Amino acid sequence: MASSDHTGDHHGSGSFPADPMHQFEIKRLLDINIAGFDISFTNSALFMLIAVFIISFTTIISVRKNSIIPSRMQSIVELSYEFVADMVRQNVGSQGKNYFPFIFTLFMFVLFLNMLGMIPYGFTVTSHIAVTFALAMLIFIGVTIIGFVKHGLGFFGFFVPKGVPIFMLPLLVVIEVISYFTRPISLSVRLFANMMAGHTMLKVFSGFVILMGFLGGWLPLAVMVAFTGLEILIAFLQAYVFAILTCIYLNDALHMH
Amino acid sequence: MPQLDFSTFLPQIFWLFISLSFLYIVLSRYALPRVSDVIEERKDIIAQDIDSAKEYSEESEKAIEELNLKLSEAKTSSQNLINKSIQDIKEDSEIKKSSLIKKINNEISEAEGEIKEKKETALAEISSISESLAIEMLESLSVGEIDKGKIAALSKTDN
Known about the structure:
The complex is a heterodimer. By secondary structure, chain A is mainly alpha-helical. Chain A is 64% helix and 4% strand. In chain A, strand 2 and strand 3 form a beta hairpin. Chain B contains two helices and no strands. Chain B has one domain. Chain B is mainly α. Chain B is 91% helix and 0% strand.
């Protein structure tokens, strides 16, 4: 452990007031080591637990029974429920009902991790490739298992496009297999790169605000404000994209095109 | 780049799976069934309300129909009443008119008879008066013997 060194030095910004990569550092808050495995409680874990707590708390506490007119919080919960339910219904169909809780969990989890990152001094869990790739692999492996359970060995037929000349088939099968196996990479890198790039840029502009001082710092500050709005949009959009791509992969596994 | 510090991968992934599975259990066991129950319940209540509203509107339509029926009934009965009374008045006036005409006719004929009578008597009187007048005139002229029968015949034929 204790290997979380100051990686920002690579970027040669010695005099730059705010190291843009410093915000992504994993800090060990509680060292835990079980059977030689390092499972320390870090700031990343803290923010995951905060997200879990907020989501569980709001969805359970704010939803009251026998309420014909919902409260504001309940409306938000119901709206997100309907939003994800519509997404699953449109992209997976009626068979997707069984997987709705998982898609909902995934969407809310990623959304809250992204949004918590927008709070000043917050930590963006999804700006780490380890987290997004683990999520993507979980989805990839789960979806592949579902495909094989549903279709048996017939799921291999997924890699054989229909209506293609026989001499083209070997090439296309290779392409299909590659595109299938790059899914977790594209899924995870998309989320991680978006979150990291946005936060880095915000930090760079905040550095400009300090460097340009009271006279010149207003322009980068205005840009920062605008980018903060854009980042909130991206935080939502990436969670949505993550969930909808999971739906599409699930649909492929269930219906094989 | 802190993202490429492999020593942090295991704790991140471990806590990711812990929190994700905890969240999944909480949401799928407790939160989501509750939310769907509440939404379903509300849909049911709204559907019931719509049903009862439909019932009420049907009832009101029925009442309107009944009202219209009664209105038209009342209209026809009042029309009948009006027609009847007009007929009655007409008949009554007809009767009165004919009796009046009869009475007038009677009176006219009576008056005519009276006039005729009076004329005849007057005529008869005229012939006797003219006879006596002629006799008187002739006597005053002293023409001699007066043939009274001839004068009477003359006065009668002259008239």
